[in-house]
Every structure is written in structure tokens, then in C-alpha cells.
Amino acid sequence: MKALFIGDIVGQSGRKVVQDNLQKIISRYDLDFVIANGENSASGFGITEKIFHSLIDAGIDVVTSGNHIWDQRETLIYIEREDRLLRPANYPIGSPGRGSFVYKTRDGKQVLVINLMGRVFMNPLDDPFKVVDDIIEETSLQNSVDAIIVDMHAEATSEKLAMGYYLDGRVSMVIGTHTHVPTSDSRILEKGTGYISDVGMSGDYDSILGFNKKNPIDKFITSMPSGRFIPANGDGTLSGILFEINDLGLVKKLCPIKIGGLLAQDYPEF
Asked: Which NCBIfam families does this one have (predicted)?
């Protein structure tokens, strides 16, 4: 099984680079499954139903999220009927939507996608380690599904690394999101789980984390409110990670990918 995870889509620039390039990527690498974190796709804050459907139409199979999932109030309603939109599974019981779900790939394989959120420097949600244990106890590799992919949306790299090692051999991939800065530590862990601390963002990198530079700089300099951050709308880079999963549900190979915009690279061999 070949799959792609696309880093946090930020604003119009992020949406455009995904919509312009995703089908080419799917065709070039013969991908079976595509996941993207879309929690910043609506002007940097949340995701509307219209934008969600536009991402699905572009070729994304599942949209994950994080701490901005509720920024668009309509999400509280439409997430209940959209099983392809996930919120972090460690939100308290009774929160709208779902934090994990089993999906079918283009060739009929079963993939469990789990969305988690860290607690270091973030909202004090339920324990993500306990929550993920409960999920994979019910739906495990080989016995129930062909692959398990985890989006670990967290601030601290130490917390992401801890989750990677904690799940090594029990899930296919642990992919860090949230900080919008791609890390260079992608690798296959000892027991076969693929890992990266942060897959980066998909958006305009001539920016501060996808937003116009002025307001964030003013806030750092003055320590005063500087108005709502506005997404930068220059040429976007699609930042993601390609990975291939073997018959045991573990990762055979993986490869970061950056297409378009400031960080553009040639299509990698994969």
C-alpha cells in the first residue's frame, strides 16, 4: 500500500497548491490513500464544510485536525455527518465527531486513521497515550486492519517522539503535525513504524507559519495584540511524506516530498 500524508493546509495558498498538484502526485506514485491535516484551511482558522468538500474532491481521502478544529462554528454540526473529517480522539467523551475511523483504500485494504493531540504547551485534553491504547486494543494491525496511521498534533517534539516509540511496531506511521515547520528526522523505527516529528505545512513559506509576517512580528516586538493573523497568499508549497506499507502493516520505505513554492524540490524517487 502506498500513501501520502499532507502537512497542515494553511489558507487559500495551501488549498491551491494541493488542488493543483495532488492528482499528479497520486498518478505519479500510484497512491492508494491520501490523508491531510486541514485544520488551518479556512483562512488559517478551522475548516468550513465547503472547504472540506473541496479537499475531498481534490483527492484527499481523510482530513485530520487539531486545536483549531472548532474555530469555524459550523464544524460543530457538520462533523457529525462527515466520517472523513476527524478531530483529536482525546477530546472528552461527548465531543462532536470522531477521533478515529476505518477507511477503505482504492484497492480495498482497511486503514485505521487516528487523530491525537498533545498536551505539552497545549489544551489539557485527555491522555493521548491511554486513548490510543484503547483504540488499537479494539482495532489492531493484521487482526483487524491492514494499516494504522496516527496524526500526532502536538507542540513538543519530545511528546511526538514519545508517541512514536510508544507505538513502534503497533502502528504503521506516527506523523507529527502542528508546528508548520518540516523536520528532517523521518525514519523507520526499530520495530517497523514510520516516523517524522513534523511533516510541515502546505502553504506560503514566505511567511511566519503560513501567515503574513507583519502581525506576528509586531506581536513579538510589542507584546501587544496585533490584530487577527492573515494567511500569506503567495505561491504555496505542498509539504508531505510518502510511505509504503508492507503486508505486516509496517513501513517498507518513506520519503518526504515538497512540491511548488519556496521549498520546491524535484519529484523524489520512491
From this structure: TIGR00282 family metallophosphoesterase (TIGR00282)
Residues with catalytic function: 68
Query: Does the annotation place 138 within a ligand binding site?
Result: no
Q: What is the DSSP string of 9-38?
A: EBHHHHHHHHHHHHHHHHHHHT-SEEEEE-
- Report the pLDDT value the prediction gives residue 240, as an integer from 0 to 100: 98
Annotated binding residue 8: yes
- 50 backbone dihedrals φ, ψ, rounded to 5°: -60, -45
Q: Which residue has the cell 483504540?
A: 135
Q: Which three cell numbers stand for residue 81?
A: 455527518
Q: Quick one: pLDDT at residue 58?
A: 97
- State whether residue 134 is helix, strand or coil: helix
> Residue 86: pLDDT band by 50, 70, 90 thresholds?
very high
Quote the CA–CA distance of 150 and 120 in Å, as a whole number: 18
pTM: 0.96
The one-letter amino acid code at 98 reads: R
Contact predicate 50/42, CB 8 Å: no
Single out the residue of 70, 67, 5 nearest to residue 37, CA to CA.
Answer: 5
The response to whether 53 counts as a known ligand-binding position is: no
- Predicted confidence band of residue 109 (pLDDT cuts 50, 70, 90): very high
Q: What is the CA radius of gyration of the chain?
A: 17
Q: Does domain 2-259 have CATH number 3.60.21.10?
A: yes
CB atoms < 10 A from the CB of 106, how many? 14
Report domain extents, the chain.
2-259
